[in-house]
Amino acid sequence: MAASSQSSVSGSDLAEDLALYREKFRRRLPANLEDLHGPAAGVVELPVHVAWSGMTAYDLDKPRQRMGLYRTVLHEGLREDLPRYLNGELLVQLWPTLRSLVGRTVRTVWEDAFPALAARGRPAA
């Protein structure tokens, strides 16, 4: 088998990139889930810096749109966006499904920071 061309990126570079990516999401976290006081119902309009590639208006009374808003805000929202657009109680309620819709890094950062989410992510014993 012929040797493929080697990438100039080493394993340590990839690990460093992953650590920086995790830190990006950690810095955005609220101190606690009670700080997330966003709406639990109605239509929410996201600013372009959060919803830059698709829908900007989400009807929280529609389950698919609610999940879409939460996924978008968790991935793209800045620290000040999280309390404005996310609701802590609703986040905990949605987490068992939502955790499968967000990337591994986002899921890990949130579950490491908030045991209530980690507990909702585990199957019942």
Give your account of this protein's structure:
There is one protein chain. This protein has 125 residues and is mainly α. Helix content is 50%, strand content 5%. Helix 1 (11-26) packs across helix 5 (104-113) and helix 5 packs across helix 6. The longest helix has 16 residues, at 11-26. The radius of gyration is 17 Å and the shape is globular. The termini are far apart.
Distinct helical segment count: 6
**End-to-end separation:** 47 Å
Question: Residue-averaged pLDDT, rounded?
Answer: 88
Q: Helical content, roughly?
A: 40-55%
What is the molecular shape? globular
Strand coverage percent: under 5%
Radius of gyration over alpha carbons?
A: 17 Å
SSE series: HEEHHHHH
Low-confidence stretches: 1-6
- Let me know the largest β-sheet: 2 strands, antiparallel
Instruction: Name the strands of the widest sheet in spatial order.
Output: 1-2
Main structural class: mainly alpha
Task: Write down how many β-strands occur, each being a DSSP E stretch of 2 or more residues.
Answer: 2
